[in-house]
Write a structure and sequence with these properties.
With 171 residues, the protein is an alpha+beta fold. The chain is built from two helices and nine strands, in the order βββββαβαβββ. The protein is globular and about 50 Å long.
């Protein structure tokens, strides 16, 4: 425990195409452009996790990885349910899906569909969405406290290499 009886938090950087549900209090960070992250939190078990996906959906079982929102978001919910969570105690927050001004028509479509697939998958799973910070034309740096369900969002014009863990160079 830290000095003020607040537990020491681990730190974890979540790369695109991954899901992380830590067993200990953790600050999970990631960087989002057109990609989307869903932070899921169980208010009864007081724990949370996050996914980060790049593409909206795939129907091809050979491509069914956490890079796709339909696969990643369903898996995130399933991980919680298998660990003993009940849907009525789950809360979701959705972030990302930016569409920078210089993006292509295809990139803009992917951004919109990434957000839509997160919403639709959570609604089909009956998981309540309590907040969103999606769309727009700025990328986001995100830090999620999986113990308190608090999220820090920093909107940025440019995502630089130094924004990616292990945070080298100028930020």
């Amino acid at each position: 425990m830290a000095e003020d009886n607040y537990p020491q938090l681990q730190e974890y950087f979540l790369n695109p195409g991954y899901i992380y549900v830590p067993a200990v209090p953790t600050l999970i960070s990631t960087v989002l452009g057109s990609s989307v992250a869903v932070c899921l939190w169980d208010r009864k078990r007081v724990c949370g996790g996050m996914n980060h996906f790049l593409f909206p959906a795939t129907r091809d079982p050979a491509q069914a990885t956490a890079q796709y929102g339909n696969v990643s978001t369903r898996a995130l919910v399933r991980f919680f349910l298998e660990a003993g969570s009940r849907v009525k105690y789950l809360e979701a927050q959705i972030f990302g899906g930016a569409n920078p001004p210089d993006s292509t028509v295809e990139a803009a479509r992917v951004s919109r569909e990434n957000v839509a697939v997160a919403r639709n998958t959570l609604m089909k799973s009956k998981v309540r969405i309590v907040s969103e910070d999606t769309g727009g034309n700025k990328g986001r740096k995100l830090v999620f406290n999986n113990l308190t369900n608090e999220v820090l969002v920093i909107r940025v014009d440019t995502l630089r290499q130094a924004d990616w863990y292990p945070y080298e160079g100028r930020r």
